[in-house]
Design goal:
The complex is a heterotrimer of chains A (126), B (121) and C (137). Chain A is α/β, with parallel strands linked by helices and 126 residues long. Chain A contains 5 helices and 7 strands. Chain A is globular and about 50 Å long. Chain B is an alpha/beta fold. In chain B, helix 4 links the parallel strand 3 and strand 4.
């Protein structure tokens, strides 16, 4: 079964979780044998932007050891041969230049979504 | 492990989609994506419908400032509205935008059972 | 003989935080009425939906004591759905994401709730006729 995971809820509890939970579960499910790609849209398009830096946070003296590395999470998924689609219009509306993004990211316009979606057995919008 | 029904059948020529929109369209611009996707799927020869639930039914009121709903009706995208959510918000069937059909949530269950792709927003 | 469909749901929202919880539980109820077996994978905050320590409370604003208020609890709805499935000769398998449980300390779940992982979600999905993901916003 070929699955397209759509992620739009960007940076949701990523500091608390130390990662993006949907990119995380995509990794986990791929590890279980799933043939699964992702489509980033909305605020989550920014996940492919280079230069994201998060310092570990400290609250009440309790310091975090591992700040989230969302770009690295997505890049690692691409390294496992998952396709990383990114909504082109959402990149444009957020001023994301293609050259400043993860090289494996594939911008896709809304007009081309039907063709893309048709290639999947399941579409899961998280 | 038994493969799912959808893998056992040959790829259908036309796929059925139902997009469940739950958000208030006046508050959430991202709802436009729901409308755009349904329209484009239909234009591409697929069969897509929208099911309004929760706060999304607020846009189904005929007097609502919801041009997307009217456009979807013009584009012949089937639109259903959860009767529970309509009742909960005091929206009578006679006050719905023409073309929006009240429906029980069991319609979503039917779509899942028949193997349609259901996307929840 | 009619084939029984199996539907898998992934839920994310914590109890008392979003309308989606009750909408989806209504949908699951409807699917049981249609004779479906149900799998649920509770992810993130949704692992608290079957949390056993949820307690009803009185409501002074409503002028109700605890019995009169009869506060509905998600754990009770889930238990009722599990019972309903059993009564119909169907199954409702509820799997809580184990890591999500650990990070929230949500270990005390009602009877019938299992601990699992995303791999279990994948297995349930592959073994189902359809899967619906209900994400959070």
């Amino acid at each position: 079964m070929k699955v397209l995971n759509i992620i739009s809820c960007g940076y949701r509890a990523t500091l608390e979780e130390q990662d993006d939970t949907i990119v995380w579960i995509t990794h986990a499910i791929r590890g279980a044998g799933a043939d699964i790609d992702i489509l980033l849209r909305g605020p989550a398009t920014n996940y492919v932007a280079t230069g994201q830096k998060v310092s570990p946070i400290s609250i009440g003296g309790r310091e975090q050891k591992h700040a989230p590395d969302i770009y690295g999470q997505v890049a690692s998924l691409a390294g496992k041969e998952a396709k990383i689609f990114v909504a082109a219009e959402d990149m444009d509306s957020r001023g994301l230049k293609r050259e400043d993004c993860l090289p494996a990211a594939q911008p896709i316009r809304t007009d081309d979504l039907p063709t893309l979606i048709r290639g999947y057995d399941a579409v899961w919008h998280w | 492990m038994t493969p799912p029904k959808r893998q056992q059948t040959e790829e259908a020529k036309v796929k059925d989609y139902m997009i469940v929109e739950t958000r208030d369209m006046m508050e959430t611009r991202d709802s436009e994506w729901t409308g755009a996707l349904a329209t484009k799927l239909n234009q591409a020869g697929e069969c897509a419908a929208i099911f309004l639930a929760e706060n999304a039914v607020l846009a189904a009121r005929a007097m609502a400032d919801a041009p997307m709903i009217k456009q979807l009706v013009e584009d012949n995208v089937p639109i259903f509205a959860d009767t529970f959510a309509l009742d909960e918000r005091g929206i009578a069937s006679c006050h719905l935008t023409e073309g929006v059909r009240p429906s029980n949530i069991s319609r979503i269950a039917d779509k899942l059972i028949d193997g349609s792709t259901v996307i929840w927003r | 003989m009619e084939t029984i469909s199996t539907l898998t749901f992934a839920l994310m929202d914590a109890p008392f935080e979003a309308s989606r919880t009750t909408t989806v539980l209504r949908l699951i109820d409807s699917a049981l009425d249609k004779g479906c077996n149900i799998n649920v994978f509770a992810y993130e905050g949704a692992v608290y939906l079957p949390f056993a320590l949820q307690e009803p409370h009185a409501n002074a604003v409503h002028g109700h004591d605890v019995d009169e208020e009869d506060h509905p609890l998600p754990r009770e709805w889930i238990a009722a759905l599990i019972d309903k499935a059993e009564g119909k000769g169907l199954t409702l398998k509820w799997v809580n994401c184990g890591l999500c449980v650990d990070e929230r300390g949500a270990h005390q779940a009602i009877a019938g709730v299992e601990r699992g992982s995303p791999a279990d979600f994948w297995k349930m999905s592959v073994g189902s006729n359809n899967t619906l993901v209900v994400g959070t916003n």
